[in-house]
Design a protein that fits this description.
Number of helices: 0
Mean pLDDT: 95
Shape: globular
Radius of gyration: 13 Å
């Protein structure tokens, strides 16, 4: 398994931007596809974006496509989520996760970070 720690969350106004980072431990980070999920209070966990181990493939939820960009730097053992044009509906705890293959399904992910709070005000 890989250990993951998210950072970069905070408070922003609608229309603003944030960049989330997820730092992975160990020497096998490049073996994993990586994903971002989010969960608002009282709601189920929602898929946001995913990226393959070599960055060849990406996949986005319709709700964020065109606004968010997922990327990774395997040399730094880090995956990023650039969030632009933020909306109040983006408010949630954001989690990064690792899977063996590119997937939008939470059950496919083997390791999860603790999450970072993103709050978008009107």
């Amino acid at each position: 398994q890989v250990q993951l720690v998210e950072s970069g969350g905070g408070l922003v106004q609608a229309g603003g931007s944030l960049r989330l980072s997820c730092a992975a431990s160990g020497r096998t980070f490049s073996n994993y596809a990586m994903g971002w999920f989010r969960q608002a209070p009282g709601k189920e966990r929602e898929f946001v974006a995913a990226i393959s181990w070599n960055s060849y493939s990406t996949y986005y939820a319709d709700s964020v496509k065109g606004r968010f960009t997922i990327s990774r730097d395997n040399a730094k053992n880090t995956v990023y989520l650039q969030m632009n044009s933020l909306k109040p509906e983006d408010t949630a705890v954001y989690y990064c996760a690792a899977a063996l293959t590119l997937s939008r399904w939470a059950y496919e992910y083997l390791s999860w970070g603790q999450g970072t709070q993103v709050t978008v005000s009107s």
